[in-house]
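Hi V.,

You were right to ask for the full record rather than a summary. Here it is.
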Amino acid sequence: MRESKAWQAARKLEAKDRTETFRAITKEFGFTSASVSAFATGCKNAAGWKNRLSANETQRIAETAFAAAEQYSFGKRGRPRFKNARRPLKSFSGKTNKTGIRYRHDLGIVEWAGLALSVKYPPIGKDKWLEEALKAETKFCRLLWRTVKDKRRWYAQLLQTGLSPIKEKNTTQAGREVGLDVGPSTVAVVSDTGGDLVAFCPTIEQPWKETRRIQRAMDRSRRATNPHCYNENGTWKKGAKVKVVSKNYLDLKRELAETERRLAAERKRSQGELVNSVIRLGNVIKTEKLSYKAWQKLYGKSVKVKAPGMFITGLKRKAESAGGQFLELNTWSLKMSQYDHVSGEYNKKTLRERWHFLGGKTAEETLLVQRDMYSAFLALCVVENKHQSSQLRERWSVVKQLLGQAGWCRKPEVASGGTIVLPTVIPSELLACQSGGGSATARML
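Predicted structure:
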């Protein structure tokens, strides 16, 4: 399709005409989800799996495969990998709850191709959210295969109609605005009712030394069982393939996978807790539009452990689900790390400058405000991607007291000789890049 003359001609068209032309070409070549689904159904029937897989599951698998190929064709993701016996599918989903994979709430089972799989529920009264969610009608059911503590576990994931139940402790204040300043390992949160500098996933401690030990042991085992893959100087031979793996190698691989699984589970739980804390303050979220992929090059360890991009995705979803908005502000035009609303000036700061000198030029006139907290306050007051002087003056009188109580806004201390003594704050970005991979200490909301 890409090599066709029609495709090459479409690339030279203007944006409006190009989209329609590309769509017509993909339809002509059969590069559509419907075409792949029909092909998959034919493959399934020819393989003699007519009674084992229904059309719903087959079409879902085909749609997943097509989505991966389509993303690759757009250059958004890497080349899709073939699913073989060593890398099987780990999820199966239907399209309805009437045929194929079906969840039967009345019987407490999942039915699929003649199988009746009993569902294990938590004790009654332990998970009230789940009990409330199960009262809604099931649209379709998905089976998930996960390896937990070196054992295969199967989970039933249900997609219900309507909106998700809201826990009483997570009710939000509709229409209230919240300003954020997101960093690689911390997030500053400011609203008209409070705010603080919060650490991402404070309960996660990445075992860097243990991980390196396991990886070195895996490398030694792989080299011992596959000497044909390495040159005399120890470098990898181009095009070589690993053919033999030892039991010790597989044990180490499972140990490493279990460690990462537990970290991912704790990361997801901690991120959800932080998202709920922010949503309780308000459902209109304002923050700068940032490239979290670019942070992976600058703060690789911190981003790997804290996952700020995942936090933003979850926050956006929950804010919109609560009837609010998630507004991404223009970073370059607002320059919130440089702006001073009292003087109206823009002053660049280095990474180590964690305190902003607000206002006057003398110690008596100056206020010290924590840099991230002040940026979050500026984001709170942005209207139509512009700093609003009236909102800044009106809200600052309230927010200044709240930040002062939390210790993020204070009068500077003057040492002998008239020099201003700054509070000792280590930049969270630099601290996160140290060997321990930790984060700055911060109080939770």
